[in-house]
Specification:
With 365 residues, the chain is of the alpha/beta class. It has 13 helices and 11 strands.
């Protein structure tokens, strides 16, 4: 299958998936999408609506948001721009790698970018799904195979061991990372463990900036590595402005799992006499850690952003996924409200999965 055909197939998939996240997209479907709808529309809709029964965090709106985030990038322009630096290599007719991919299940479709990266590179995807997110991706794979039957031999899902592969991409926790290192020691590999994201506020943010920051905090109930888990704020920061800005995200408390976590953490910290700030659905605690529990956000004061920059830079190299701020800096930053809308070139942990595969193939020659 040629590179251009792979791009075209994923673009067709993107058009099909967009209608499940954007009602307006349903008015722009073409004949190919109509044909796919006949086969798969009801199945995808049922999977979206029933996901919460398999994982209480996967409410319908969050599943649709995850689908939309990927679908908007699955078009010929964005895919072509993404792979452009490697086009010459990707166009070569070569024997495919079999890439084992172990996926996380913290947010819906957490492993989709790895799935896309392996297949767009012309390789074979050998995937192990998380038990927390095992419904939607296999169904999307069926749609992909209907568009292009050649993918049938390129997509394999396994509930057992990852064996017989030439490379591994594995995402998990700090604990599973140690297991991954041991078990996959002999393979070329990308191993990912826990990461968090932080926001740095100047105190001059508008109400809309703070409202948008709320999406970065609460989307997927804060379970993603791109969700904000900590704030850096200037001395004497007015937290009333922050709470006012995020107030419209209050419906997050209607999810019983989120509410239970919020109440549990609030009780534990109050019993231990910790000083907390809270507004009924989010707890703020001053803490140097970047990893806050569900329903909480840690914060830390800073005197001068310039003195904070080296620590942030080090964090981005080691344990931070995203830095959200509007403060001018040479560090890579994301605007408020955009943390969970990555481009195709925004690789997890900053590790380029396309380049990784091509380097392995180059060593085979």
């Amino acid at each position: 299958m040629s590179l251009e055909r792979r791009i075209n197939v994923f673009s067709t998939l993107g058009k099909f998936l967009r209608q499940f996240a954007d009602k307006d997209a349903a008015n722009e479907i073409d004949d190919e999408t109509v044909a796919l709808n006949t086969l798969f529309y009801d199945q995808i809709e049922n999977a979206i609506r029933s996901s919460v029964h398999y994982n209480g965090w996967f409410i319908e709106s969050n599943v649709r948001t995850a689908l939309g985030a990927f679908a908007q990038n699955l078009n010929e322009k964005d895919i072509s721009e993404w792979i452009e630096p490697y086009r010459d290599e990707l166009e070569k007719d070569k024997g495919p790698l079999k890439v084992g991919v172990i996926m996380a299940g913290n947010i819906p479709l957490a492993g989709f970018h790895d799935f896309l990266s392996v297949l767009i590179a012309g390789n074979t995807f050998f995937g192990k799904l998380s038990s927390s997110d095992r419904i939607l991706l296999p169904l999307i794979s069926e749609v992909l195979i209907e568009i292009e039957p050649e993918f049938k031999t390129k997509i394999i899902f396994s509930s057992g061991r990852i064996d017989g592969v030439q490379a591994v991409i594995a995402t998990g926790s700090n604990n599973t990372y140690r297991y991954f290192e041991y078990y996959f020691g002999k393979y070329p590999k990308i191993l990912r463990k826990n990461r968090n994201s932080v926001a740095v506020l100047s105190g001059n943010e508008t109400p809309m900036n703070l409202f948008n920051l709320g999406y970065d905090i609460f989307q997927y109930f804060g379970l993603g590595c791109r969700n904000i888990s900590k704030l850096y704020v200037p001395e004497a920061y007015d937290f009333d402005k922050f709470f006012a800005g995020i107030f419209e995200h209050q419906p997050v408390e209607n999810n019983h799992k989120y509410a239970n976590n919020y109440m549990y953490n609030k009780t534990v910290y109050l019993l231990n006499n910790h000083k907390l700030l809270e507004n009924g659905f989010l707890i703020l605690k001053e803490d140097k850690s970047n990893t806050s529990p569900v329903g909480m956000l840690f914060y830390e004061y800073y005197d001068d952003f310039k003195t904070l920059e080296p620590d942030l830079n080090n964090g981005l190299q080691t344990n931070l996924q995203c830095l959200v701020t509007r403060i001018e800096t040479s560090l890579p930053t994301i605007d408020f409200g955009k943390a969970q809308s990555p481009k195709l070139s925004d690789y997890a942990d900053g590790v380029d999965t396309i380049k990784f595969q091509l380097e392995i193939e180059a060593k085979k020659v």
